[in-house]
Write a structure and sequence with these properties.
The complex is a heterodimer of chains A (334) and B (121). Chain A is of the alpha/beta class and 334 residues long. Chain A is built from ten helices and 18 strands. The chains are: A alpha/beta (334), B mainly alpha (121).
Chain lengths: 334, 121
């Protein structure tokens, strides 16, 4: 098979060797609580600010991954990291703890997909043997970054989502285990004209549709090829909209479709409104839950579709529409 | 009995004002800051045309405490000072009438900031 078809890249030798995850208190109370490697007791983590707490979490995710895999930092060829803070300082400050070459990435909540896609290319090309892809997000830092600081105490509207507090890291390697990344489809930026920064599911759903349809066309696969198709963080309303948009194009999403954001929290919890969002949403659902279920053999073929709303606080204040991007990562047990 | 009725009136007026704001939060795309400003300006307008005085007499603290009451105090100060000292009063009256409330709020915010920390929930 050709290595590239449309926007899809095919790989033969990219393995998901190991994963690590850490999640906040609320995420721990959700259905995936027991699958995360660690849970925070307090969101501040004993630090002076929520930003420092996020950095500590991100550092922990990578340290824990190295510890789990018994790798020395020198044995890792590259760190591909991203988060939602200004100038992605969360990643840069976490990376200074490790003597590993570093590339900082930003695709908002799709950063985890971006990292996996780039990491896979590095491994497949033979330049690198092991790379770590990691992202983090924190509810309290994201509120300050994109909406209002918590100190303002403003109310959250019904279409808003609750940024997931957590961090996760994935080790991609040229050998090890049975779980492979078989192909990735890199998404285009789609702007559907949504201006409401509290309704990001609607902004991201069209980009998820575009990437998923491109992926199916490039790979000549059908929707039921996968045991699980998981979008990143469209939320409950966004996932519904995504299903409708797919329906318009003649694709019917069945029971094998889930949205990580819609399922990560306890459904009875009313604070979270439409569900989870954030760079760590699809990340910890994959690294914590899906990967472990693949190891157990429950899922054999997964399509992870992290979605990102590419807005900034300034673009929101200047009333600009919200562009979005989504990347499709096919992970299969060989 | 009279006290109970008074309390009920206060809760009714305060509750209705908050309910209108809640409906705006839930059904429009306006941010909380914008809704806040709208209520402030609404208070000033209602005071100027003489409607808010009646609402305040009926609802007491229920009408005075929300930001709309703040707007009415602002307008009242401007009106009274302008009548007393002429056009200069339009610039000083509002700030004068709010001085007590403002200083009190800043003082309280300072104390709260010393003892409390924000949390994720």
């Amino acid at each position: 098979m050709d290595k590239k078809q449309g926007a899809t890249l095919f790989f033969n030798n990219v393995y998901v060797a190991s994963t690590s995850s850490i999640a906040g208190e609320k995420e721990g109370e959700g259905p995936f609580g027991k699958y995360f490697d660690s849970l925070l007791k307090k969101d501040e983590l004993g630090t002076k600010s929520f930003e420092l707490a996020e950095i500590r979490m991100h550092t922990y995710a990578i340290k824990h991954l190295l510890f789990k895999t018994k790798l020395a930092p020198e044995e890792v060829d590259c760190l591909l990291m991203g988060d939602l803070l200004d100038e992605i300082v969360g990643s840069s400050y976490s990376a200074r703890e490790f003597a590993i070459p570093f590339l900082g990435l930003y695709n908002a909540c799709a950063t985890f997909g971006e990292a996996l896609a780039i990491g896979s290319v590095f491994i497949e090309s033979g330049f690198m043997q092991r790379v770590i892809c990691s992202t983090s997000s924190h509810f309290s830092t994201a509120e300050r970054q994109f909406r209002f600081p918590l100190e303002l105490g403003s109310q959250r509207p019904p279409l808003s989502q609750w940024t997931v507090t957590g961090a996760g890291a994935t080790l991609l390697a040229s050998s090890g285990g049975d779980i492979k990344i078989s192909c990735v489809t890199i998404g285009k930026v789609i702007d559907f004209g949504v201006t409401d920064a509290d309704d990001m599911g609607a902004a991201m759903a069209p980009s998820a549709r575009d990437t998923l349809i491109n992926h199916l066309k490039d790979t000549k696969r059908k929707l039921d090829y996968y045991d699980m198709i998981a979008t990143g963080d469209l939320g409950k309303a966004g996932a519904k909209m995504f299903k409708l948009l797919m329906q318009q194009e003649g694709y019917t999403l069945g029971d094998n479709y889930q949205d990580c954001g819609a399922i990560i929290f306890d459904r009875e919890d009313s604070d979270v409104m439409q569900g989870g969002s954030g760079t760590s949403c699809s990340n910890i659902v994959f690294n914590g839950f899906l990967y472990k279920k693949m190891l157990e053999g429950v899922y054999k073929k997964i399509l992870l579709l992290p979605t990102g709303a590419l807005l900034s606080k300034t673009s929101t204040l200047q009333k600009q529409t919200i562009p979005a991007v989504a990347h499709a990562i096919a992970i299969e047990v060989k | 009995m009279e006290t109970v009725l008074l309390y009920m009136r206060v809760f009714l007026v305060g509750g209705v004002i908050c309910m209108i704001a809640q409906v705006l939060i839930n059904t429009t795309k306006m941010t909380s800051a914008r809704i806040l400003s709208i209520f402030l300006i609404l208070g000033m307008v209602l005071e100027t045309i003489g409607v808010y005085k009646a609402i305040k007499e009926f609802g007491k603290a229920g009408a005075a405490i929300p930001i709309i009451g703040f707007g009415s105090t602002l307008a009242r100060g401007v009106i009274e000072d302008t009548l007393k000292t002429g056009i200069a009063g339009a610039f000083t009256g509002g700030v004068e009438s709010m001085a007590g409330g403002l200083a009190w709020v800043i003082f309280l915010a300072f104390i709260i900031a010393l003892v409390a920390r924000s949390k994720s929930k």
